[in-house]
Specification:
Elements: E1 2-3, H1 4-11, E2 14-17, E3 23-24, H2 35-38, E4 51-53, H3 55-63, H4 66-78, E5 84-86, H5 94-103, E6 107-109, H6 114-128, E7 132-142, E8 145-150, H7 157-166, E9 170-183, E10 186-190, E11 198-201, E12 205-208, H8 209-213, E13 221-223, E14 226-232, E15 248-251, E16 254-263, H9 269-284, H10 289-320
Parallel strand pairs: 4-5, 5-6, 8-14, 14-16
Antiparallel strand pairs: 1-3, 2-6, 7-8, 7-9, 9-10, 10-13, 11-12, 15-16
Helix pairs in contact: 4-5, 7-9
Length: 321
C-alpha cells in the first residue's frame, strides 16, 4: 500500500478523484501506459500497476467513435486499477474521470510531461515499497560518507555525532534510524518524522540540531556506507591494528563495511571517525595503506633474501679460491 497524500505531494499532482481510503493498492514500482488496451488488446493488461496517460493515449481515445470509446473506457475501469495519472495537464477525458469516480478509482493530473512523471513515479515507488527495518544507532554524513554508529546505550554515539556536527559534518538521525533497501547493493537511512533533526544529550536533554547549528548541519536521508560499532575498551582484547581485512555486516541483504571502534577516556572519537570515512573512500578507489605496508615488508624481505644469497655465493667463491 502507498500513501496517496505522499504520492500527490511528491509528484505535485492535482487530485481529480481522491482515494476513498487514502491509500493506493500499489505493490510494484512498475507502471503501465494503456495504449494497447485502448486499442482493444486486453491480453496481458497490467492493470495492477499505476496507469499513466500521456498525449498518445489521450489523442487515441479522442479519435475513437463514441460507442467504441465508451465501451473501451468502461472495460478499462472494470479492472482493479490502483490509480490513473493524466500527464501534460491534458483535458478532454471527462468521461474517463466520471467512470473512474463511479468505480472508486483515484485519478490525478500532472502538469509535467509523461517521461518526467514516469521517472519521478518509479523513483517514489522504489523508495516507498523498498524493504525496511529500524536500527538503534546514529547516522551521520562525514565527508560524503554515510556513517552508522551502533553500540550499547550510553557508549557515546550521540556525543560523537554532536562533535562531528560541530566540525562541519551533518546529522541524519539520532537514536532511531529507519533503513530502506533501495537497490540490490544500497541501503538508505533516515530519521522518523517525530524525531527528525532532534538529538538527545544526557545531562542536557533534547536539542534541535537544525535550529542550533543551522539547516546545513542536517540531512533528511543518506546512504549507509559503513557501520561503526562503538564499545568500551576491554583490556586484553585483541583489536585490529592493521586493517588488512574489511569485515562486513548484513543490512536487509546488503553487505556493508563494518568497523569495531573501542572507546576509552581521552580518545577523540570524532577525529577517528573522520579518518575512517576518508580511509573507506580510499579503499573504494583501490588504495589500502595496510596493503601498501604489507607490500613494503614483502619487498624488504625479498631484498634481504637476495642480498643473503649474493653474500653466500660470494663466500662460496672465496672458499673455492
Amino acid at each position: 500500500m502507498v500513501d496517496a497524500a505522499k504520492m500527490t505531494q511528491a509528484l505535485k499532482l492535482d487530485v481529480l478523484v481522491p482515494s476513498p481510503t487514502g491509500l493506493l493498492n500499489i505493490e510494484t514500482s512498475d507502471i503501465n501506459r494503456p495504449g494497447l488496451p485502448f486499442a482493444g488488446y486486453w491480453e496481458h493488461f497490467a492493470h495492477e500497476r499505476p496507469q499513466i496517460l500521456g498525449l498518445v493515449e489521450a489523442s487515441y481515445i479522442a479519435s475513437l467513435e463514441p460507442e467504441t470509446r465508451r465501451a473501451r473506457l468502461e472495460k478499462f475501469v472494470s479492472y482493479e486499477i490502483p490509480c490513473i495519472i493524466i500527464c501534460r495537464h491534458l483535458g478532454g477525458l471527462d468521461d474517463l474521470i466520471a467512470l473512474a469516480a463511479s468505480r472508486g478509482i483515484p485519478v490525478y493530473r500532472s502538469e509535467d510531461d509523461t517521461t518526467r512523471v514516469v521517472v519521478e513515479l518509479i523513483y517514489f515507488l522504489n523508495n516507498q515499497l523498498a524493504p525496511q527495518t529500524t536500527m538503534h544507532g546514529v547516522l551521520v554524513e562525514v565527508y560524503g560518507v554515510g556513517v552508522l554508529l551502533t553500540g550499547e546505550s550510553g557508549v557515546g554515539k550521540s556525543e560523537a555525532a554532536l562533535e562531528l556536527v560541530k566540525r562541519g559534518h551533518r546529522l541524519v538521525a539520532d537514536d532511531v534510524v529507519n533503513i530502506r533497501k533501495v537497490s540490490e547493493n544500497r541501503v538508505v537511512g533516515e530519521a522518523p518524522e517525530a524525531i527528525r533533526h532532534l538529538m538527545e544529550i544526557r545531562g542536557i536533554g533534547i536539542i534541535n540540531v537544525a535550529t542550533m547549528f543551522g539547516i546545513g548541519s542536517v540531512l533528511s536521508s543518506r546512504t549507509v556506507n559503513i557501520v561503526v560499532h562503538l564499545e568500551h575498551w576491554v583490556e586484553g582484547k585483541n583489536y585490529d591494528r592493521l586493517g588488512l581485512e574489511t569485515p562486513t555486516t548484513d543490512i536487509l541483504g546488503v553487505s556493508v563495511p563494518w568497523l569495531l571502534l573501542p572507546i576509552r577516556p581521552g580518545r577523540n572519537v570524532a577525529v577517528v571517525l573522520e579518518v575512517a570515512s576518508r580511509n573507506l573512500v580510499l579503499r573504494q578507489q583501490g588504495y589500502s595503506a595496510a596493503q601498501e605496508m604489507e607490500n613494503r615488508m614483502k619487498a624488504q624481505i625479498s631484498r634481504a633474501a637476495e642480498e643473503a644469497e649474493r653474500m653466500a655465493a660470494a663466500a662460496g667463491q672465496i672458499n673455492e679460491q
